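Feature request disguised as a bug report, sorry. It would help if multi-protein outputs had a clear separator. Right now it looks like this:
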Amino acid sequence: MSDDDVFDARGRVAGLSPAELVAVIDAAEESLAEAPLAALSEDGLLDLLESREQARRKGVGVDAAVFVEISDRGACRRAGYSTVHQLLTQGLRIGEGESRRRRVVAASIGRFTAMTGERLDSKFPVTAAAVADGAIGETHVWVIEEVMDKIPTSVDPEARVKAEAMLADAARRLNPAGLTMVGNRILAHLDPDGTLADDKDRQRQAKFRLSAQDRQLMSAVQARMTPQLRAEFEVVFVQWAAPGMNNPNDPDSPHGAADQPGLDPAVLAAAAERDTRLLGRRQHDALLALLAWANAQFSFAKPDSLRNQIVVTVTDEDLARHAGIAWTTTGTRIPVSDLVTIAADAVPYLAVFSKATGQPLYLGRAHRLASRAQRLAVFARDRGCTAPGCTRPFTQCEMHHMPDWQDGGPTDADHLGGACGTHNRWNGKQPGTWESTVLTDGPDKGRVGWRPAGRAGPWIINPLFHPDKLRTGPDTPAEDRSPPPTVNHRLGDTTDSGAPTDSGVDIRLARHLAA
């Protein structure tokens, strides 16, 4: 076979399907990995590096085209996922951030299909052309999209087109940091006084997001607040973050707002003199006090729901030694020492839940909706959504019947599992859906397993809410893999039972710990 049979006039591989082209690329990568790079000169290495980067950047355009095609045709459902994002994060195990970047890049340079069937132009055509040339990468595209999103909607459309062209041209010569500087200058030129931004622009940019907990269990906040929310924050901070107020390190510190009726000014003044906290810490403690107060007001608004109450699961060993980590229904990990402190401030004692309390965990077919006791039992086992790779905490979960209620599934604790709304609707028997069951044997006995409907592969569990299970070695006997006994503690509930529970923790011990 001659080169004319393989390459076209532009030097591209011809006559192969997309799958065959990917196979060629894969074979070339394997060959390149074994190539004698040491034989190259320094100039040869630099040329190779530049060529590799150019090829990688061209691949960004190909990835965007594949994303668009899968999205337009809904092909992700064939693999059992309802969105392309789920396909990337769960099916291909790509990180959440990387998946979002790919989605933004595809939306910026991809050519989607209109409802009429015609292929639309790229949102940023000049940027798409630069990617196709291998001149810019996905980080450049991310910066361009971010700058364009900040341009006020009232700016003339021709000015927006010109701004995109200027950014794409600058991206060919600058790294993303330099491109960001150019973008800021363009924004300053288009709206020097900030007067063109209207309420629609502010609402579009508003966000308040908690980042994941770090190794110290601390969380950062990413926020961009509207003027209204900032004003509300400032009112709260003036009263609740005043010096001396809501100081967790001072047992005599007043709680609540500084202007509350009945507060002795002398007591507040004395607390303020003892207060050594900086402004940031005072505002943190003010929010903590305000949220604790708000949760206390509404904790019994829906007694059958766990979404408006602080509920945790913790092992009896950790509770007894005031150490270790507990999990809440919202997915937060808190030190057991903090758990006991919260309980002591909220109620006289912790209520211990288990089978020994006598609460009805088995309702059969009499009721479709799970009781609060059943939700507590399921939370103790699942801690969050049981679907593979899902990070939704238990407060965002529904009670998932296995088998489905319409198929005769009973409302019993050992036939229920936590599943967020999306994954609760996943369950089915048709292609593109998933089936689920509570496993009855093996090292994951008692856990909820999922697999695509109609496939005979192994059941897949979600390990994200049970990181302790990831440390179990494959050779560990099954009897040693069972989880330690757990108990549910719902702050604000009580029980008159003083009998020891199956977990070895009784109500008297809980009273002692919270005293």
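(second protein starts here, but nothing in the output says so)
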Amino acid sequence: MIDLMLLSDLVVNLPSAVRLQRLVSVLREQFQCGAVAVLRLEENRLRPVAVDGLVHETLGRRFVVAQHPRLAAILSRRDPTRFEPGSELPDPYDGLLDSQVGEPLPVHDCMGISLYVEGIQWGVLTLDALEAGAFSGEATQTLKHFGLLAEAAIRVTRLEQELQGLRLVREPHSGNGVSVVEVEEEIVGQSEALQALLHELTVVADSELPVLLLGETGVGKELFARRVHVLSRRADRPMVHVNCAALPESLAESELFGHVKGAFSGAISERPGRFEAADGGTLFLDEVGELPLSVQAKLLRALQNGEIQRLGSDRPRRVNVRVIAATNRNLHDSVRDGDFRADLYHRLSVYPVPIPPLRERGNDVLLLAGRFLELNRARLGLRSLRLPPDAETALCRYPWPGNVRELEHVISRAVLKAVSRGATRTEIISLGAELLDLDEGVDSQEMVRPMTGMGSASAEIGHAELQTVMPMREVVESSQRHAIQQALTASDGNWASAARMLNVDASNLHKLAYRLGLK
């Protein structure tokens, strides 16, 4: 009966995640065990793609094979591998069973089988039972049978993806034949918002259009830019990353377009720029809104004509570069304020792609947390790290103004706190909500409140004066908010004029305003 159920799934058009999830659920029922998981092999690590009986954040973890001897043993054999109940090899799912959250696995049965698709090792199927001896007798032979069904399900899923065009088959730039472009699975998440974004990037990657990635600080714009490059026709050519915010104005032109010998003091030899380094490939301009106006005109020429000119040279050079730009600024406002050229903005924003903030990605926060937990576990040589229910609730409720980067820092900090407070490397460490140190009083709307109607800062300062003691950081930030608001009022909301009044660089003022929550 179970066989018929799984076979029927092979002929029904199901999303790959649903098909594999039904597979592990059926196997858990068939073997009456505590947990079943399917993990895909990606280079030297295993990525969970479907689990039943394990906590949800397990899907975000990446298990480095060399660090998990049980998984390594399963991969080393084509036949099923069973571990005796008394095996001293550490279990990768220690503390992750949803029936024993945070508790070490007792003496238990464990077995698994490596999965192959078209003769190539694809991953593993693992089963854990809480009762010793549960997998005795013919269990391993039965697992071998179900392993073949799992491989068939994976083959069907792969075929469907190819037919739907989700895997891009390209003509290579040289030679004959075809090459299949695979994307590194660095972007973790299953939310509808993320899946819609990934699909959109897959479509636009096939074009030669410039792409402008828009998103808050910490959403991972560089990862999405890399995805566009890897899925494009330029995948076998270089992708060059330029952090525009880190380029001093005096060196920005030389860095982007290169220079000839003697072009300026210290130019002792000829040097190509980033455009030439990316010739034939992709140039990623991160924080493009921070480029000085003097360089924007030459960037526009390069985009329009495909020509650059090294600093100090009269000879133009042809370059074939696809530009992907990213910014956390509102370039409409920058154009209005005179900080960004309108013609360059229109050239870069042929295809704008907004990146959703973490607070709009639902339970992706738990998958990402699982990823960072596993990274910290491996980095510090710990037995197991996990999140109790109160911590998961806190993570889901917090608005994450710093997005994925902030989440990574929160998890890393909590792990270090737990170890510094006496947790040992041989125990299962639970990171409670108190270790995460999240301010649940922060309102997500405050992260995106408009710039108008901000006359409350002076009232905040007046209220602060009633307090006997106020942290220095809050005093400084309140004063900064008040000064920026006064300058904006005096300049009718023009940020460039406000920057001149405050005697600060305009780009630094924008960054400070974002940090203070004024933008």
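Even a blank line would do. Unrelated, but nice: The first strand starts at residue 35 and ends at 42.
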